[in-house]
Recover the amino acids of this structure.
């Protein structure tokens, strides 16, 4: 099943992120206080966040690329290696199993054509894909491409789509201006999934 990211504009007025307002006990570290400040957000209807739907293998994703969008790929890899990230994102080597490959395809420019997609292969030692639609990525801003790559890597990490009620990289549409890295709620969902 492919998780698709459409290149449609989002509504201008956004709801505030889900923030838990409370006083923090003094025995919590600053990092624990930051994580406790934002609650994980639910998936949109019909989706679930599961480790089994990710490309993660033994606490890491080993990746290769055959894409012309190296800058966007590099941005996404760095964005998901935020402070406290548990899953390591490393290039594949001759002695490791390739978990994820970044690749391009020609998918057309129709309204329903995806900008990019995460394609999961559930086979044993299979390679999953983040695929960029060259027809939809062509001529786009760097921020737009970074948003698409970071969003799809979020799916490879097991995250689902989020509703417009929270400020999230994992919206089904690319925002205007684009959200290019995981937001507080995305990190909260990541931490809940990979604790």
């Amino acid at each position: 099943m492919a998780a698709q990211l459409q290149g449609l504009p989002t509504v201008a007025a956004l709801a505030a992120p889900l923030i838990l307002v409370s006083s923090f006990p003094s025995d919590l570290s600053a990092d624990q206080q930051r994580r406790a400040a934002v609650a994980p957000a639910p998936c949109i209807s019909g989706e679930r966040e599961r480790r089994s739907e990710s490309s993660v293998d033994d606490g890491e994703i080993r990746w290769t690329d055959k894409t012309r969008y190296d800058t966007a790929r590099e941005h996404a890899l760095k964005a998901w290696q935020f402070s406290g990230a548990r899953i390591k994102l490393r290039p594949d080597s001759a002695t490791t199993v390739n978990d994820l490959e970044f690749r391009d395809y020609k998918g057309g420019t129709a309204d329903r054509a995806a900008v990019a997609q995460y394609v999961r292969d559930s086979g044993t030692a299979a390679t999953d894909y983040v695929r960029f639609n060259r027809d939809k990525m062509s001529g786009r801003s760097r921020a737009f491409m970074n948003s698409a790559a970071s969003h799809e890597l979020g799916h490879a990490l097991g995250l689902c789509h989020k509703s417009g009620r929270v400020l999230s990289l994992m919206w089904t549409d690319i925002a205007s201006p684009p959200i290019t890295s995981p937001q507080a709620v995305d990190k909260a969902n990541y931490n809940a999934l990979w604790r």
In short: The longest strand covers residues 60-66. The beta strands are 2-5, 60-66, 88-91, 100-105, 116-119, 128-133.
